[in-house]
Amino acid sequence: MSATARQYWQLTKPRVVALIVFTAFVGMLLARVDPAPGMPPLPPQLPPLTAALFGFIGIWLAAASAATINQLLDARIDAKMTRTSWRPIVVGQITPRNALIFALLLATLSMAVLLLWVNVLTAVLTFASLIGYAVIYTVFLKRATPQNIVIGGLAGAAPPALGWVAITGELHPYALLLVLIIYVWTPPHFWALAIFRRADYSRAQVPMLPVTHGVHYTRLQILLYTILLTVVTVLPWATHMSGGFYLGGVLVLDAVFVYYAVRLMRPPSEAYAMKVFNYSIIYLMALFAFLLADRWLLPFGS
Questions:
Q1: pTM to 2 decimals?
Q2: How remote is the C-alpha of 114 from its chain's centroid?
Q3: What is the spatial distance between Cα 154 and Cα 148, in angstroms, rounded to a whole number?
Q4: Which DSSP string corresponds to 178-209?
Q5: CA 75, chain centre distance (Å)
Q6: What is the 8-class DSSP label of residue 169?
Q7: Which of 40, 131, 183, 259 measures 20 to 30 Å from 153, CA to CA?
Q8: What contacts 223, CB < 8 A, 6 or more positions away?
Q9: Alpha carbon distance 55, 10 (integer Å)
Q10: For 105-131, what is the mean pLDDT?
Q11: CA-only gyration radius of the chain, Å
């Protein structure tokens, strides 16, 4: 990969986007059509190749576009933060004009792919998610309220539903349940990072919760949201979306997350918040992996 290509690749926040498209892909593989009343549940079936492939590409392109727009609009903030001061626009490797062209190209390709080879509903929901993150969250919420992550989290939680709709063409309640899981996961995930990087956010004048309400209050909110997350993540089992294997796995994941959140109230070191942040990423990936395994690999799954 050339230096220029690598710089544009960095604009798309590849690690973040990888997690997004992973949950979208799992949403595709979990997607199902309800059987007729009185009929037994349908066995899992591989999704149509065209819808799955182009749905994956279209959602990835939209997520990459949103990440690029985020970096474009946040360049002033990024320049003041240690964590982001290396980004291509900040250091002048890519001009704002070229970044905007790149983002618009990705968004246009995304909509074209989804409209031509997937379905209209997926395109509409994907575009709404892009605008929600790249514009509403980045331009308004991030700078306006310490509840920015809570209010704006819906856009980032949408990918599994987008994947589901790409396969079935409808927004099933189970797809919304996947969205709810990520939505409730987002605050403890991001606030852990915000605690560790609070000096950065303060310097950039971004009203993140640890800056406006203090670290102790933020730790308490992380604990409360983690407990709520434990309740929400049991719902796939309670609603017969998933079976016993998922339940056993997610209860272990939840127990570890709660342990981290409790210990964060009196952490052994300043860096402990980053351990919570890193575990939250592993947690979400493992949770979706358990959903997938329960549905596809185990005879006692749902």
A1: 0.95
A2: 20
A3: 11
A4: HHHHHHHHHHHHHHHHHHHTHHHHHHTT---H
A5: 22
A6: S
A7: 259
A8: 258, 261, 262, 264, 265
A9: 23
A10: 98
A11: 20
With a pLDDT cut of 90, the percent of the chain lying above it is 87
Per DSSP, the residues of 245-276 read HHHHHHHHHHHHHHHHHHHHTS-SSTTHHHHH
H-type alpha helices, the chain:
3-11, 14-30, 49-73, 75-79, 96-117, 120-131, 142-144, 148-157, 159-168, 173-196, 198-203, 209-213, 215-232, 235-238, 244-264, 272-296
Judge contact between 35 and 80, C-beta under 8 A: no
d(CA 70, CA 133): 8
- Give the Cα separation of 289 and 23 in Å (integer): 9
Sole residue written with tokens 């059987």: 35
Q: Is the pLDDT of residue 49 over 70?
A: yes
Cα dist from 124 to 115, 229, 250, 292, whole Å: 9, 28, 32, 26
Chain centroid to CA 220: 22
pLDDT digits (tens, 9 = 90+) for 235-291: 999 999 999 999 999 999 999 999 999 999 999 999 999 999 999 999 999 999 999
Tokens of 257: 């997350």
Tokens of 136: 């509403």
Average pLDDT rounded to a whole number, residues 221-227: 98
In order of 119, 151, 177, 180, the CA distances from 157 in angstroms are 20, 11, 10, 7
Terminus-to-terminus CA distance in the chain, angstroms? 43
Residues in the chain: 302
Q: Which of 19, 2, 7 is nearest to 287 (CA)?
A: 19
